[in-house]
Amino acid sequence: MKDYVRDTLQYYRENTMRFIEKTKNADMEYLYNVFEKYINPGGNILDLGCGTGRDSKHFIQEGYQVTAIDGSSELCDYAAEEIGQPVRCMLFSQLDYKEKFDGIWASASLLHVSKEDIDNIIELLYKALKPEGYLYVSFKHGDFEGMRDNKYYSDYTVNDVRKLFDGHSRFTIAEYVEGEDVRDDIDTEWVNVVVRRAD
Questions:
Q1: How far is Cα 54 from Cα 152, in angstroms, rounded to an integer?
Q2: The CATH number of 3-197 is which of 3.30.365.10, 3.30.390.30, 3.40.50.150, 1.10.3720.10?
Q3: 71 near 106, Cβ under 8 Å?
Q4: How far apart are the first and last CA of the chain?
Q5: How are strands ordered across the β-sheet holding 101-106?
Q6: What is the pLDDT of residue 184?
Q7: Model pTM score
Q8: Which pLDDT score is estimated for 199?
Q9: Please, which residues bridge with residue 146 across strands?
Q10: 165 Ramachandran zone, left/alpha/beta (phi>0; psi -120 to 50)
Q11: Measured distance CA(155)–CA(170) in Å, rounded
């Protein structure tokens, strides 16, 4: 395990309840709608870095088949209770799914992957998607990379995200959404993107 991954997981281990309290009630309805319009009813969704299970719970209630994973065992335990099904504890680099998902929801999760490693993770997500499946990703807006608030962050601009997925010719960009943080007390701009597996 790389040092930055270990350090970030250590933060979540030591601050599990604080993280839960700050994120579990965030209003994600608008972004759910952005993503769900691309996913057929009852489709199979991977919640990548599910955290509290907030988003998995929503998708399950909407009738989707959901696989939830997270790298933090503490959050996996909490999320499993919230959604009433097991949550797989694994690193993104350990993804081993093959054309299983109609959609992958990566909300505020890939932002913890270094820019050196992101291409390899995106390739694993490509393999996990069914042909013409959709991937939703969100990043904090900016050009910073490194440890911030005891977690590793890779920030991206819209142009950065475009370049990131232009480098993967098997993805096409379906939609960008820029917006403010859904948590009332956080002043952060976000870049959200939905991309489609092109083959």
A1: 22
A2: 3.40.50.150
A3: no
A4: 32
A5: 88-89, 65-70, 44-48, 101-106, 129-140, 189-197, 171-180
A6: 43
A7: 0.94
A8: 80
A9: 153
A10: alpha
A11: 23
